[in-house]
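In the design runs reported in the main text, the only information available to the sequence generator was the tokenized backbone. The following block is the verbatim input for one such run; it is reproduced so that readers can re-run the procedure and compare outputs position by position.
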């Protein structure tokens, strides 16, 4: 019987799928860190500090499409890869990251909707998310990425180094499986 896509990426291909997902996550992190360096290290004004992708494709940054697309990819990746986290601890932390990313996605949906409708919330001159009422946009993105990333890392730690749980299937991601010649 042929396994479905979800069965494959949460089974024998889970490690590869997680690695690909983490490359995407880390590339996005890199973009935000470069943008923060452009602002705080080089003294660029926020509209000019667009990271690497925004430098070459500025319309992607000004249209909100890049961030909304990334928020969707993150949400989908966290949701799709969740069944592969079979332990109590790793699943709990992955679900926390998924829950935070869901709200982060909602914030980007608000921004994208304002951009597409041409009407900004709260009579602001630019599209504005809820938390952006109190936290500047650049810092807010760094905050969101941090509070999603930390539980992801904790989940992956418990996934790679699972505590002994009865009848828990272990993934190829688990390091003790790699070290054991019997597996």
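Verbatim output:
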């Amino acid at each position: 019987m042929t396994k479905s896509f979800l069965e494959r990426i949460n089974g024998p291909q889970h490690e590869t799928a997680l690695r690909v997902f983490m490359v995407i996550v880390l590339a996005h992190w890199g973009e935000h860190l470069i943008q923060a360096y452009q602002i705080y290290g080089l003294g660029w004004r926020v509209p000019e500090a667009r990271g690497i992708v925004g430098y070459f494709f500025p319309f992607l940054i000004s249209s909100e499409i890049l961030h909304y697309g990334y928020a969707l990819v993150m949400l989908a990746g966290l949701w799709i890869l969740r069944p592969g986290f079979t332990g109590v601890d790793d699943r709990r932390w992955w679900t926390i990251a998924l829950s935070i990313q869901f709200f982060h996605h909602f914030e980007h949906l608000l921004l994208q909707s304002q951009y597409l409708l041409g009407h900004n919330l709260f009579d602001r001159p630019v599209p504005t998310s809820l938390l952006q009422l109190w936290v500047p946009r650049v810092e807010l993105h760094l905050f969101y990425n941090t509070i999603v990333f930390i539980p992801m890392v904790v989940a992956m730690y418990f996934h790679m180094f699972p505590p002994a749980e009865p009848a828990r299937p272990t993934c190829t991601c688990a390091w003790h499986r790699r070290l054991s010649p019997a597996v």
